[in-house]
Amino acid sequence: MSQIASITWNPWHGCSKLSEGCRNCYVYRIDGRHGRDSSEIKQTANFNLPIKKKRTGEYKIPSGTLVYTCFSSDFLLNEADKWRPEAWKMMRIRSDLQFLFITKRIDRLQDCLPEDWGDGYENVTICCTVENQDRADYRLPIYKAAPVKHKMIICEPLLTRIDLSPYLGDWVEKVVAGGESGMEARVCDYDWVLEIRNLCVKQNISFWFKQTGTKFVKDGKFYFIKRQLQHTQARKAGINFNP
To answer: Are 153 and 130 a contacting pair, CB within 8 Å?
Structure first.
């Protein structure tokens, strides 16, 4: 089976840290290497990427492409309120694309939706990230009730054991789990990943073990895993589940 073509669209860049999962944010880490200030939120030169056209008049992004949206910020960031209506409009215009964004600010969603949102745009997946039990207990009830057509729970960086049993159900399309990357990463325990995975299998929900993270514990043994191996090691575990 051929893979779906994908592209990243960052309409704005920069963010403010919100919770424990933000402590070692990869955007801050990458920006730091280049002397950039990640707390400075700016619209990017690619803001209108979804509707850019070639000289032939065709869209530059082909129909059917999966567009990873706002991966160097948070789509629901307060500072982006002035730009977001235009971003929603572009998603509506390009209904032939699939847009996906991840947010730690699901509690802002209702205040950020366009007037014609209804119960969601069919071509938009909104993912809610939870890094520990506290954030799961706060964000997931809000997320479950939110008018979104396609929902995925992202347990990344997975910082503690998380019991998702009070929340999982047929309203969730997929759950993703992964450890934290970077030299300052906190430990991810394989038992935490397996518990989430087994719950997904039990409820027939897709599960993806995305990455081990840098500091990984399995069967009580500690492993320091290089960045370039974190995704492949997770894949080698063979625990992904697609009903």
So the answer is: yes
